[in-house]
Amino acid sequence: xxxxxxxxxxxxxxxxxxxxxxxxxxxxxxxxxxxxxxxxxxxxxxxxxxxxxxxxxxxxxxxxxxxxxxxxxxxxxxxxxxxxxxxxxxxxxxxxxxxxxxxxxxxxxxxxxxxxxxxxxxxxxxxxxxxxxxxxxxxxxxxxxxx
Length: 147
Ligand SMILES: [Zn+2]
Fold this sequence. Notes:
This protein is mainly alpha-helical. The protein has helices spanning 3-13, 18-25, 29-36, 44-54, 58-62, 109-119, 127-137, 142-146; strands at 82-84, 90-95, 99-100, 103-104.
C-alpha cells in the first residue's frame, strides 16, 4: 500500500473527517486532501502527529514494515504494544509493559530477567534458557547501554 492510501485508511478506520485530522495535526483540510491523494507528503513533524493521532508508528504510515524492538526487553514492537508518553504521544523505543506513564517498569536488568524467566518459561523454553538468552541480548539494547 502507498503512504497516501495508508493515511486515508487510518483516518476512515478512526472515523475522522479530513477537517478533524487537519485540526489535530495543525494543517489545513486541503493539506490532508493532498496527502491522501499522493499530491504531497507529510513532513516529519506532521508524521509524528499523525502517528500519535492514529496510534501507529511512523514506519507504518510510511508503508515500511516496522522493524522496531523494545529497547528494554527486546520484544518486537507491533503497533498495539508501543508505549505511550503521559501526554499520549507514542514512544517507539519501548513496549507498553516496560514503560508506562513516564516510568520504567524494571529498575534493573536482573529484575526484568527474573520476571521473564519466571513468567514466560514453558516446557520447550525453560527458565534457564530464557535467562541465558536475555543475559546475552539485553546488554546490547539502548536502555541498558545508557544505564
Ligand atoms: Zn519491553
